[in-house]
Amino acid sequence: MPKSERAGRVTAGQSHWGNYGLANDTSKAQRASPFPLDGGRAGDGGGARRQPLCTPPTPALPRVDAKHRSAMTGGGSPRDVCLLPARQMRLPRRVFGIVAGLVVALAACLAPASATGERRHALSLVGEPRHGPDYTHFAWVNPDAPKGGVLHQRAIGTFDSLNRYATKGNPAAGLNLIYATLMASSLDEPSTEYGLVAAWASHPADYSSATFGLRPQARFHDGAPITPEDVVFTLTAIKTAHPRFALYYQNVIGAEKTGPNEVTFRFDVTGNRELPQIVGALPVFPKHYWTAKDASGEPRDLARGTLEAPLGSGPYRIASVDAPARISYVRVADWWAKDLPVARGQWNFDEIRFVYYRDRTPAFEAFKAGETDFWPENSAKGWATGYDIEAVNRGHIKKELVESLAIAGMQGFAFNTRRKPFQDPRVRRAFNLAFNYEWANQAMLFGQYKRLGSYFDNSELASSGLPQGRELEVLERVRDKVPPQLFTDRWRNPVNASPEDFRRHMGVASRLLAEAGWSPKDGVLTNKDGDKIAAEFLLVQRDFERLVLAYKDELEKLGMRISVRTVDAAQYRKRLTSFDFDIVVASFPQALSPGNEQRDFWGSVAADKEATHNIIGIKNPAVDTLIDAVIFATDRSELVAATRALDRVLLWNHYVVPQFYAPADRIAYWDKFGRPGQLPRHGGATAAFQQVWWFDDAAAKQLATARSKQ
Fold it and tell me: How far apart are the first and last CA of the chain?
């Protein structure tokens, strides 16, 4: 799926990227794409509650002569290139007519890419865009929203970089605010993008390329125009900067200028319907800035962290930085896109400030004191017990459940299958049998959650029952590579309606461990080689400790040696990106049109590349085949069938112990803001607050007066 809409219902707990570099609570492109988004969710774990170090080889260009190769990669004639034999032939007169007839086909091949497809103001993978080419604004904004005020937000941990595309460092919250992309996602439509830097997009029927017409008024913050040369530079730079981007854009073999304000991306495959939107979600970097030297005289490098404020083209620019504790963004008053339909009524705060806190506890105290304005609540215990305060009782702080139609991606205890004993699916399944979700939901989670039973839960993409129809046809391709019971039994989580159920499941877990070669020795499960089952749960937030400690007790009853370690953000990120862990809490945000990001999540190539999202280490030929089936689906029905098949195979391999998700977004905010009558339902409450709410000056004055009288 494209970067602009990597959406996923907010689940409980801290994702394995969370504040540390990836997507969380935004639209599809921003949730499961490789692009790191900022801010994270402070999850629930003990309480009660979506964006690499070595680069894969770039796909080789076809064998062509130098002139044609230049045309494909940015030089030469600004047009598509047909690859023909590099030799001349004398043609008999009698076949001259045939050759003349081929001229038409050759001319079509040499025609500009923009002529091979209709120019579109928007692209969608799920039907026609809701807003036509003559739209004036999105239905989920107030087009006349007032501008002004300061939005104070919290972030957890620390930051040490202003480059969100580097392999190392903790990027600051909010950096997405300074960038503009070729196309922008709609927060209320799945898998749909509207032109931002690009006024239009086109692609041929076989999806072998995509062409974008840039708006002449598009500018970087220094006033320089955004050009096709900047777009071409961006693709090369971003694929070089980070292995995750190289993997994500592996089918994009090049970009070239094909007109004064036109750029064309070329793909090494046909039939991938998502690729035009994947490149449409590309941010555009200023070539003149990144190829120059910084204030210290050193060459700038997109692959390296920096505290120099980057030059952007988005609705905000960086105003001040106090690393590692604070960063502030100021609205660009004369932003070139402010009156475009795609941006009207959005980005209304004059300033957005992020303050960092060590963990949830001081951050929530700061919110209750009015030091920050908005709180996305990811702790069920916090939601149930944390708001019995005067500010809430007087109506100064509002609590609200916000409807969300976003898909619920998988969140769970994820195993590092690079390590024994997690390479055995029987051991992994035993862990799931020992997780008493029903007890935890009532005793710790205040009954506010639903158990995840799919990697694409709460959507038509989730597998269910037994495979049939087109899904079964897809699975037949990998029948000899998947667990046979997948075709005969329904996958389901263990359900513990009573203590007797849990005792029975623990008994099944013990038998599975014995079948896998683990038997008790001195109270610890040991195999014939003397290895013991010892596992460490690596956490980055203390909120999860209560839940994990309760889980630890049950696992130790089975004879496992379990430890729990909570580390700071920097150490967590380092260990995660180098796969130095046994078990972590991981989340995998999804959208209604899954695609290339599945390679990053579960693909074999990603398993051996540090800093990819395949933290589990999945190297499964069946999964690779099904990922391609998802990516190259020719229509919605085929995509749904292929995704269900992938979901089913992932579930039957027991790569995670599924956790839970909240069916609605829980937010709290100080009563000094206005908002549209209709809020977007696919982008997440946090993204919507920052993007479409506004500062209500009258309400703010009324609130200040009321608080002064207390």
Answer: 51
Average pLDDT, the chain: 86
Is 585:16 a contact under the CB 8 Å cutoff?
yes
- Rounded distance between C-alpha atoms, residue 535 and residue 583, angstroms: 7
DSSP H helices, 497-615, are: 499-515, 545-557, 569-577, 597-602, 604-607
Residue with tokens 């007839």: 101
Q: Up-side HSE of residue 333: CA atoms within 13 Å toward CB?
A: 2
Can you name the residues that pair with 201 across neighbouring β-strands? 120, 212
**pLDDT tens column, 546-565:** 999 999 999 999 999 999 99
* Helix/strand/coil for 272: coil
Helices marked H in 92-194 — which ranges?
93-110
Whole-structure pTM over 0.90, yes or no? Answer: no
Which of 596, 571, 565, 500 lies closest to 280 in space, CA to CA? Answer: 596
Residues 125 and 323: beta-carbon distance below 8 Å = no
Q: d(Cα 396, Cα 619) in Å, to the nearest integer?
A: 52
Distance CA 49, CA 72 (A): 51
Q: For residues 258 and 260, give the distance between their C-alpha atoms in angstroms, rounded to a whole number.
A: 7
Average pLDDT of 592-614? 93
Average pLDDT over residues 522-544: 94
Other beta carbons within 10 Å of 152: 19
| Residue whose structure tokens are 């263990």 | 494
Hey, CA dihedral for 666, 548, 660, 576, is it positive or negative? positive
What ranges in 228-324 are assigned the alpha helix state H? 228-241, 243-248, 275-280, 287-290
**Cβ distance 113 to 211 under 8 Å?**
yes
| Rounded Cα gap, residues 455 and 472, in angstroms | 18
Residue of 20, 69, 18 whose CA lies nearest to 42: 18
The answer to whether the Cα torsion of 149, 153, 159, 164 is positive or negative is negative
Q: How far apart are CA 700 and CA 231, in angstroms?
A: 42
Q: Are 518 and 560 in contact (CB under 8 A)?
A: no
- Beta-carbon neighbour count of residue 616 at 10 Å? 26
State whether residue 575 is helix, strand or coil: helix
340-374 pLDDT, tens per residue?
A: 999 999 999 999 999 999 989 999 999 999 999 99
The reported pLDDT for the residue numbered 432 is 98
| Averaged pLDDT, 72-96 | 31
| pLDDT bucket at 570, cuts 50 / 70 / 90 | confident
Alpha carbon distances (Å) from 454 to 150, 466, 590, 626, 649? 40, 14, 11, 16, 11
Provide the pLDDT for residue 709: 87
Q: Is the per-residue pLDDT at 222 higher than 50? A: yes
What percentage of the chain exceeds 70 in pLDDT? 84
Which tokens go with 517?
A: 């070669």
Query: For 207-238, b where at least 16 C-beta lie within 10 A, e where not — what string?
Result: bbbbbbbbbeebbbbeeebbbbebbbbbbbbb
Q: Which residues contact 422 (CB under 8 A, 6 or more apart)?
A: 415, 416, 428, 535, 582
Distance between CA 75 and CA 81 in Å, rounded?
12
Least confident residue range of 41-55, 552-566, 642-656: 41-55
Task: Reduce the secondary structure of 386-436 to three states and give it as a string.
Answer: CCCCHHHHCCCEEEEEECCCCCEEEEEEEECCCCCCCCCHHHHHHHHHCCC
* One-letter-per-residue 3-state SS of 433-490: HCCCHHHHHHHCCCCCCEECCCCEECCCCCCCCCCCHHHHHHHHCCHHHCCHHHHCCC
Q: Which of 65-74, 286-295, 581-590, 689-698 shows the lowest mean pLDDT across its residues?
A: 65-74
